[in-house]
Amino acid sequence: MNGVSGRMGYRQHLVRSILAIREQGGVELSDGRRVQVEPLLVGRNEAKLAELAQRHGLEHYTTDLDAALADDRWQVYADFLVTKARASALRKAIAAGKAIYTEKPTAETFEEALELARLADEAGVKNGVVHDKLYLPGLRKLRRLIDSGFFGRILSVRGEFGYWVFEGDWMPAQRPSWNYRTEDGGGIIVDMFPHWNYVLEYLFGRVESVYARAVTEIPERVDEQGRRYKATADDAAYAVFDLAGGITAQLNSSWTTRVNRDELVEFQVDGTLGSAVVGLFGCKIQPRNATPRPTWNPDIPDTHDYANDWHEVPTTEAFENGFKVQWEEFIRHIAEDAPFPYDLLSGARGVLMAEKGLESSRTGARVDIPAVTPESVRELAGAVR
Q1: DSSP 3-state assignment of 272?
Q2: HSE-up of 316 (CA within 13 Å, CB side)?
């Protein structure tokens, strides 16, 4: 587990996933056998790693990634590094024959992300990319609504994500300063569009084009050492996506907005037979035959309680931490070849959408997004040879 001392690597992947899996006795396979996991903590700061290992009663940690990759005891390489450091480490791990499990974006450029997918394919190593949003309770309820035909023909998706990230002067920022420097791999499009790509793709259909505007709303911030720095990366992005099947998606992403919604991210899905408003956990629906008949009259105040016309979808099962659930699916993929669609090629499609979003913002034009399929990897392999 490389980069496990970072915020996401520690909280979601080590504590809430791998350690939770260990505590439950491992991952149960389809034949009833269980596979247990043993983490090796990897990072640059030995003192931090030692402290984490002691805190959780773990035996193994190292600052020597090359030695860890050369050791046959460790079958999976998991990457939670900053984006700039990720691709080179993934290359090493693929060359060492390790299974790959990585955060997003998988690389800084689509070309490099596609190259990683090619290398993994040629090496025959299993690989997975974190697609955590699909495992949220709200989106899992949405998946069930889609599969049941609740919406009829889906017309549009509208999403709002974000919150106010403090500038770092009078109140500490909630995100690291590198997020706001393009030269360090920062920017909200680079950070969030890979998420939006897999959410849209796996729930509604392939993203065929993007029209985006990226903005740096706060030009100067204060870093972790109290020093002022120029924010060179976008901290807000407003985009319209055309999806396969004629669905239009509009997604706003911002670290410079104050929250006035039930959750930090919400999606409204409108269809001919019904609509839904979905967050991280909640899911409200309004079917066609229970839709009110609004009329617009600017001269008379509207006293109708529209929020009361929505019905909460009940929680009928216990939803576990999404990061843990996806880890379990990936471990089954390794141990018994269970299906796992969220691979490096899927990660490359997310990087491509971010690139095309930035291109759209630079040019002010709608930009087509070409299909990225296993054939793309084979074509790249032929070009390399």
Answers
A1: coil
A2: 6
Contact assessment for residue 334 and residue 26, using Cβ atoms and an 8 Å cutoff: no
Is residue 34 within 8 Å of 27, Cβ to Cβ? yes
pTM of the entire predicted model: 0.93
Question: Long-range pairs for 54-63 at CB < 8 Å and ≥24 separation?
Answer: 56/14, 56/15, 56/19
Residues near 252 by Cβ (< 8 Å), separated by ≥ 6?
Answer: 159, 160, 161, 162, 236, 237, 238, 239
Whole-angstrom distance, CA of residue 8 vs CA of residue 2 = 11
- State the Cα–Cα distance between residues 319 and 170, nearest whole angstrom: 38
Asked whether 213 and 239 are in contact (CB, 8 A), the reply is: yes
Rg (CA), the chain: 22
Identify the pLDDT of residue 375.
Answer: 79
Instruction: Select from 184, 155, 114 the least CA-distant residue to 246.
Output: 155
Beta-strand pair 60-62/40-42: parallel
Percent of the chain whose predicted confidence (pLDDT) is above 70: 98
Name the pLDDT band for 383 (thresholds 50, 70, 90).
low
